[in-house]
Amino acid sequence: MPRIDLTRRQLLGAALAIRLPRKIRVAIIGADGHTAEVTDHLRDLPDVEFACYALSKPNPKWSGAKHYTDHRQMLDQEKLDVVAVTTDDGARAAAVLDCVSRKLNFVAEKPLARTREDYVRIKKAVLSSGVKMGLMLPLRYRPHFLAMRAVVDSGEIGEVVQLQGQKSYKAGADSGWKNRAESYSGTIPWVGIHMIDTMMFASRRKLVECAAFQTRIGWPELGVRENTASVLYRLDNHGTATLNCDYLRPDKAPTHDDDRLRVAGTKGVVEYQGSTGVMLMTGTAPPRAVPLPPAGSLFVDYLNATYNNATPTLSHDEIWAASEAAYAAREAAQKGGFVKI
Question: Is the same domain home to 250 and 328?
Fold first, then answer.
């Protein structure tokens, strides 16, 4: 049986404390989504200063940083290096474009914009400006998905020909902005994009075409927010992938989310779910648990790539690919039929 070796880069994911060539001043716009991807790792980053943030009201947890109510005023008055844009979906494109116009590097919540049109504007602006971009897609830094990618790279399951992904969340009906069309991009771009990116990351396959369905059943308090969606993708080698995402996880479940991924190849299968961990099955040995590497950090990886010229775990091209696969799936669900990516 081939040995599954984790790469040196994956093993070094645990070395979250890095040094940067100079002091980096960071700001945050908004407080929706994955702000903890930034704030939780500040202790590992002695060269990073959380300088300021823009919110309608002060955040007591961020008392060490200066508070602004207008993000444009903050961007104009402060000398900043990186901005984390974690607004609701409707406000995000304008804030991102405000950063890019000032040549400020940024890490944004996903998706980059509520509409495909604003996404195209952002992509053109980023490509022409030279700013360094990150996107809040942290699943690829988690040990189980790093382990699955290592299995695929080992060749033990052969050529990947089928993927099955799941993202299931508790509804959190009090997140009011997700229930309004002007501030929510949809459940596929907001929830599904996590697994869209992870499927491509773990399998090293691209998604090239899709069809999809989405709707809300029951839960009238969710407004426009779909609580069930399913996508069928075609892979670049003519294999298939399916994605189910929902807001149907019961409130009494032990965790907010339930992520699952199955990667099937011509020689075997590797799959993950919370109750079993990562399991590998091939025709040459009994099923076995796969050892996990240390976790990485999206924000630390982004800073290391931006200021130390390290190779990023999440590249610009991968951000474009995940974004466009999510927008295409939403369009397929809205219009019907197949949509090329």
Answer: yes
Distance CA 258, CA 260 (A): 7
Tell me: do 142 and 83 sit in the same domain: no
C-alpha distances out from residue 130 to 105, 151, 315, 316, Å: 9, 35, 14, 11
Query: Could you say which DSSP state residue 48 is in?
Result: E
pLDDT class for 4, splitting at 50, 70, 90?
Answer: very low
Structural domain contains residue 322: yes
Q: What is the pTM of this model?
A: 0.94
The whole-number pLDDT of residue 7 equals 46
User: How far apart, in whole angstroms, are the C-alpha atoms of residue 163 and residue 241?
Assistant: 4
| Domain span holding position 321 | 138-296+311-340
**Strand (E) or helix (H) holding 35:** none
CA distances from 300 to 12, 17, 76, 85, 110 (A): 12, 8, 26, 16, 18
Same domain as 97, residue 196 = no
Integer Cα distance of 148 and 263 in angstroms: 8
Report pLDDT digits (tens) over 260-279.
999 999 999 999 999 999 99
Cα gap 149→169, rounded to integer Å: 24
Residue 142 — left, alpha, or beta (φ > 0 → left; ψ -120 to 50 → alpha)? Answer: beta
